[in-house]
Amino acid sequence: MSDHDRICAKLEKLQTYYTELKSLSSISLDEYISNSIYRRAVERTMQLIVECATDINNMLLKMQSGKGATDYFNSFIDIAEQDIIPIEFALKIAPSTGLRNILVHEYEKINDEVVYSSINTCLQYYLEYMDLINQYLKCTK
């Protein structure tokens, strides 16, 4: 399998996670807070979305320059510097890696309202991200 095909396959996986998160976006804040299954599903799916995107970023960087990014945040900046995505967009989406770190490492107590309020932003940014990567790679058959 070529690097291009591996990245396109990863992009398909990202689309699956995106669809899963979108299906959870219709729950109310009260439902979210009172239902630990919803909370864990949203948290884990958001984590997977960010990790999948940063995997794609690193695969693109290695394909372009032979080396990956130093961290999740900079993977978005680095692909912008390679003219894969606009820098303005990279600066908007890169901070989503901070929420991923909180969810994974619980650096601080997870604030359910903050996570819940991040769902639509996550959906908006990662839909645009998938479109930009697809435009760059032309994965759609």
UniProtKB/TrEMBL annotation:
Keywords, A to Z? Hydrolase, Nuclease, Toxin-antitoxin system
Gene Ontology CC: toxin-antitoxin complex
**Known Pfam families for this protein?**
HepT-like
Give the superkingdom in one word.
Bacteria
Q: Name one GO molecular function term.
A: hydrolase activity
NCBIfam families on file = HepT_toxin
**Family membership:** Belongs to the HepT RNase toxin family.
Q: What is this protein called?
A: DUF86 domain-containing protein
What is the native source organism of this protein? Syntrophomonas wolfei subsp. wolfei (strain DSM 2245B / Goettingen)
